[in-house]
Design brief:
Blueprint (H helix, E strand, L loop, with lengths): L6 H23 L6 H20 L13 H22 L5 H7 L3 H12 L6 H18 L4 H5 L5 H21 L6 H4 L2 H26 L8 H29 L1 H7 L3 H12 L6 H18 L2
Length: 300
């Protein structure tokens, strides 16, 4: 694994935040039309159908997926069944801008998990970059008011996003430490993603069943919902996950984690255009802190 930010790696790592910002905005738009767990299940069901012609061979009995099914089940739990489901759940009680800004805590969890479980050496520059990002998160949680920050009360959406950030950090570290047995699948991004999706559908189906059994789950079929499902299956799912896996392999999870924090920048523009969620002054300051953390952490 090359711990170096090349132009190719930077481009690969910029694509997912752009796609995921669109995912947050679209998820917020369709929240009144569909329950969050159901949305997640339908999204990945469509992604499965898109990937099947490209990588269907990975589902054969003699492929390298099934000897490694426990590892792929864990990867899919933290990403498809965990991170994505929690994100859609958060968008029911929080704005798209706030959700993506709170998600800027990901680099902090990247460093903590890397140090505790993967014996990563944490540099002062990375710590400072993480603190800059975290200060931006705190600023958003307090809605730009210092008195609110000192008496901070998290809304449900904030808690869901914090849990999602931890899940994504775990997922990224597992990506960066593949087993020798899964090497054949890792060389083909479509096979690698489909291997996660087929097992992730199991996690998504379980959470969706619980949603329909114990909550007021609903789905209102319409053309806008169909268009939204198509977008989040193609862009934020297939394209973004393929680019993220390749980018993490080139730059390493610690540096890649900071690129997730570009998502609020893109989300602010899209939210203003499609949701009418006009960014505030504290959002702009949080953006500056986030970008500073990215630049500082990725410098040699």
């Amino acid at each position: 694994m090359t711990q170096r930010l090349t132009p190719t790696a930077a481009l690969l790592l910029v694509i997912p935040p752009l796609m995921w910002s669109g995912n947050a905005v679209v998820g917020r738009l369709v929240a009144p039309l569909i329950s969050p767990m159901t949305l997640n299940l339908l999204r990945w069901s469509l992604a499965f159908l898109l990937l099947l012609p490209l990588a269907g061979s990975v589902l054969r009995r003699d492929s390298g997926l099934w000897p490694q099914w426990r590892r792929f089940a864990l990867l899919s739990l933290f990403s498809i069944g965990g991170y994505n489901a929690l994100l859609y759940l958060a968008l029911n009680t929080s704005t798209a801008i706030n959700v993506t800004l709170v998600g800027a805590s990901t680099p902090v969890w990247m460093l903590i998990i890397g140090r505790l479980f993967f014996k990563m050496a944490v540099t002062r520059r990375q710590v400072l970059g993480a603190l800059l990002s975290l200060s931006g998160v705190v600023l958003v949680l307090g809605r730009g008011d210092w008195q609110v920050i000192t008496h901070l009360r998290l809304v449900p959406g904030d808690v869901y996003v914090l849990l999602a950030s931890i899940a994504w950090a775990l997922y990224s570290w597992l990506l960066a430490h593949p087993t020798a047995e899964s090497a054949s699948i890792r060389t083909d991004w479509a096979q690698f993603l489909l291997g996660q999706v087929v097992l992730g559908l199991g996690w998504s189906a379980l959470s969706t069943a619980g949603e329909w059994a114990f909550t007021a789950a609903h789905i209102d079929w319409s053309w806008p919902l169909g268009a939204a499902l198509t977008f989040i299956a193609v862009g934020p799912a297939v394209i973004a996950y393929g680019a993220w896996g390749a980018g993490v392999a080139r730059a390493g999870p610690a540096v890649a984690g900071f690129f997730i924090n570009l998502t609020p920048l893109f989300t602010a523009v899209l939210s203003s255009a499609f949701l009418g969620e006009t960014p505030r002054l504290y959002h702009a300051l949080a953006f500056v802190l986030i970008v500073s953390g990215i630049v500082l952490s990725s410098r040699k």
